[in-house]
Amino acid sequence: MDFNLLIGGKSVPAASGATFERHDPVSGELASRAAAASAADARAACDAAQAAFPKWSSMGPNARRKILLKAADLLEARTPDFIKLVSGETGGSAAWGGFNCFLAGGMLREAASITTQVTGETIPTDKPGCLSMSVRKPVGVVLGLAPWNAPVILGVRSIAVPLAVGNTVVLKASEICPGVQSLIGQVLAEAGVPDGAINVITQSAADAPAVVEALISHPAVRRVNFTGSTRVGRIVGELAAKNLKPALLELGGKAPLLVLDDANLDDAVEAAAFGAFMHQGQICMSTERVVVDEKVADVFVQKFAAKAKSLPAGDPRNGNVVLGSLVSEAAAARVERLIQDAVDKGATLVAGGKREGSIMEATVLDHVKPHMDLYYEESFGPVAAVIRAKGDEALVAVANDTEYGLSSAVFSQNINRAVSVAQRIEAGICHINGPTVQDEPQIPFGGVKGSGYGRFGGPYGIAEFTDVKWVTIESEQHYPF
């Protein structure tokens, strides 16, 4: 399938005529061909968004709500098209593509619901005859930089609330899934978003640095949001700061799941398996570290290894499998290197470890220690590192022994104890007796430390994508001169 840029309501090729291709990571077949934008194309998209801002921002909230609700319906109706592109471009299963559409539809509906929730307040003042107020206003053009791993969810999340509160947007698609995220733009345009209020830029990997710099530095862009790796997030954050633009950064993770000595081990195993192996571990919230109290570690590892061994891996288009393809063979090879490094340094491989091309088995390693690369490095693959510790304080210390702080989980049958542990974990998210992988449109989603700053989701996004303005209404005043 071929995809152009969406600029000012028109489907246009890159000014240079250049294109790039994305191939299926399993079969190698062509999945999509997309326009390879340049910095000039990026600036044109920002210009179009700036021109569309007065019309969109002045539209009544219920008019914007109606369009976003229609977009949710249209997106869900095109689920088969999204599934085909998610599978071809990223290797994701049909179930993963379908779930992406389900949650993205919910995000659009949640965004629609907040169009009338952009409120202000009156402020007490000592000045006689003065009514003092704060009001929230859309900022202008918002730039969304979306990743490939949950391409529909995270593409929609980067622009839904900004649109709802009256901003216009430029979505820069990941070069790994240009078709999926171009289709998001098509859906919103079809729903009635005015020309230029939604723009989508695709570019090759080689052109990404120049395109991103052009987008962030454009004078019309007033907010930046980025979801992706911490390495790239630092670059985006530096560019945004250089241009004095607030950035919302949702970055990498190394989510710990803590198993206290009184935990229901069967429940903990099920949650750890879901968190570690859902979508082949390619989720920012994926359970990368299972931190287990020594008292129950032997039994837990036995049960966890058996669960991992029961999960079939393979091409999801050729059978009913739990683990499908990673995004590329290179990604799978990198995970394999982390596994081998851990084994060479003393870790015990208790399940999985084999790969064929871009497909890898569910893998569990026991006795992972700090001198192993896997202990600190985000794998973004289907491997769970079991780390043993003694007592709650030691478990918390291991959980916090990372640059990351996105999601986490604690398993205990003593809720007061679990809450105490959860409060001490340095993460933006913690689930008690639940998996690290969870998301809903209305929750404050984001992390701390190297996992970024700012929060997506429902009313929390209103604060991220609006400016507060002080307004007074004054009666006759008396001045000192």
Question: What Rg is obtained from the alpha carbons, in whole angstroms?
Answer: 24 Å
- Low-pLDDT sequence parts: none
Number of strands: 23
| Helical coverage, percent range | 25-40%
What is the global morphology? globular
Alpha plus pi helix count: 16
Termini gap: 72 Å
Overall mean pLDDT: 97
Keyword list:
481 residues; alpha/beta; 40% helix; 21% strand
Describe the structure.
The mean pLDDT is 97. The chain has a 7-stranded mixed sheet, with helices on both faces. It has a 6-stranded mixed sheet with strand order 10-9-8-11-12-22. A 3-stranded mixed sheet has the order 1-5-4. The protein starts with a strand and ends in a 7-residue tail after the last strand. Helix content is 40%, strand content 21%. The protein has 16 helices and 23 strands. The chain is of the alpha/beta class and 481 residues long. The longest helix has 20 residues, at 39-58. The protein has helices at 39-58, 61-77, 79-90, 94-113, 151-157, 160-164, 178-191, 208-217, 230-242, 265-277, 294-309, 329-344, 373-376, 392-399, 415-424, 458-464; strands at residues 2-3, 5-7, 10-12, 19-23, 30-35, 121-123, 130-138, 141-145, 168-172, 198-201, 221-227, 247-250, 255-259, 287-293, 348-351, 355-356, 359-360, 363-366, 383-389, 409-411, 431-432, 452-453, 466-474. The chain is globular and about 80 Å long. Helix 2 (61-77) packs antiparallel against helix 4 (94-113) and helix 3 (79-90) packs antiparallel against helix 7. A hairpin with a 2-residue loop joins strand 16 (355-356) and strand 17 (359-360).
